[in-house]
Amino acid sequence: MPRKSNKSWGGRNGRGNAPSEEKHYFGHDDRLGRNNGGPHLEGTRPRVSFKTLRPNRELSRNIALASLDEDIPMTGNSNNNTRQTRQVFMTTNTRDRDRRERMWQRTIARGRNSPLPNRNFNGGQSGSRLQTLPIGESNWYRISIPYGHKYEKDYILRTLLSYMAPEVFIPIMYKVMGNEASFYVDDHKTASALLKCDRKITMTDGFKIQVRAKPGFPQCEIDDKLKERLKQAMSKRYVQETNALDLSKFHRDPDLVGEYFCALFRPAMLMTVLDIVGEHIPTLEALNLEGNKLQNIDRLSVLNKKFSNLKILYISDNKIKDIHQIDAIKDLKLEELKLIGNPVCNKYKSRQNDYISDVRKRFPRLLRLDGTELPRPIVFDVVDDAAKVPLSQRMFVADAKAQEIASQFLQQYFTIFDSENRQPLLDAYDEHACFSMTITTSHNNKLNGYLMENRNLFRIYDTARRQKLLKHGRLPVVSFISEMPRTRHFLDSFTMDIALVTQAMMFITITGYFQELDNKEQPIRHFNRTFIIVPEGGGYCIRNEQLHISQPPEAQLKQLNQQLNSQPILNSQSETPPTLLPQTSTEPAKPILAELSEDVKQQMTMTLSQQTNMNLEWSLKCLQETQWNYNNALSAFQEFFKRGQIPSEAFTK
């Protein structure tokens, strides 16, 4: 997927010429101008002004003084009233005049009876309310206007905006119920500014508008009608050129705020919106969720399932407090992320390198963080989709001929190893063969039977003991193997790797499970055996072998037991002939061991007789017909016995 960091912002409003440091993937068409985050109202916003010409100082003085004399009627600014005021001044003695002068000065200082609205006046009932306006936990406030039903919505909103300027607000879910108009705002500062308007604005009918504010949270039911409106609003926010969707400050969308409260920090609303986007834009590459008051982003874990192509995510200016919260989206293969403006970023003010490191631990592909280019990631830190790790296989063999040789050799080896007599394995080892055994020491209590022969070089420093635990020669090796507990190996659990094949040798590694039969509990063990086999005579023999035994975890044992219920094992009377490893041919396997001695053939005959209950004559005949391949002989017996084609004299002893 090409990087989207080089895309221009593009859009339908001619935003392509934005500065390069701010790449507007999400430049959608709102149809109406935003005016720096202000409300989206039709037409231009008239500025209501309450400023009047400052009255003549002498006139203000005369009116203020006249208002203190209850005997003088106040009928406005008529000439008659002016004459009466002058008469008061002429008939008042000096002491009264001085007293009235002082009272006038105090009146002017307080602004009493002033015809001008005092923009900075916070006293009285309104001031008390401002001081006690609580900060709600959700930071949402319900603004109510008593008797607001008398005025048009636009008139009330423009009047409030003009008085509050330069403060602005977005009214959400404006409604009129009875005599009261109400709406919601999403900020304490905005609610406080609106509260300052209480009884400060005189409407055209002379009524002073009242404003009330209290913490409140709007409610909105999600129904089919709302979903259709959501689709329409999001279609205008989608930028097809960059395959980007801008859901920033979605609760303020001008097409929705009038009737609905579409806050994405509400889990139900967030999932509804993401479901719609996932249905219509499953290939989305860039998503902007800035300014949605997101605090718990666990629900964003669905982004990885819904949008596998998502490379760019903006979640800045939300309420994410801890870096571990973004673990919910760490499966996204992001190339660009915006997280700035969240409380979590304040924790890294003096630790910018730690911030980048902690974010990149979650997103190793990240190339751009908070608008800043990051150093290119180290290649081995990023998994390349084009270089996926191949699926695991039970066999790793580069040479088909080597696979055939190794499969047949090991098939005969484990057939004899699981028999009651392991002496025939003398012909499987070279005269100068070496053998060593180790165990996993953390399971000493369960592997005590092997502890005394454990040749762990990290724990045994005595050179003599090291030498003693290393078995040299054919006889010591087979003698040690013969003393090990009787076993049966689970062939379907085997894996085989042939790491090296030359004309002089073959390096083979086998892993799998076996069961100890001498133990009453018959425990299951895991093993890893490494063989180096070399050509000898007409076949191969073992020059070097290392055996490691460990105790499987309980979870693996449980899984293995479930598998064994339906899979064949060596030395069983299963109807399905067991095979150690897949064969490369349907023809009977030829013996690969060096020519079997008469003693080995005799032992194989006796073992087959004991296992099949046939007499020695028929057991010998069966082995000869299968060219002394014990496994094939046992499989042939089982097949013919199942068909009922073995004569009764074969069982006469």
TrEMBL record:
Main location: nucleus
Listed PROSITE patterns: LRR (PS51450), NTF2_DOMAIN (PS50177), TAP_C (PS51281)
GO cellular component entries: cytoplasm; nuclear envelope; nucleoplasm
Recorded superkingdom: Eukaryota
Keyword Phosphoprotein in record: no
GO terms of biological process kind: poly(A)+ mRNA export from nucleus
Compositional bias segments (type: Basic and acidic residues): 20-33
Keywords, sorted A to Z: Leucine-rich repeat, mRNA transport, Nucleus, Repeat, RNA-binding, Transport
NTF2 domain sequence ranges: 405-549
Family: Belongs to the NXF family.
Name listed for the protein in its UniProt record: Nuclear RNA export factor 1
Organism: Lasius platythorax
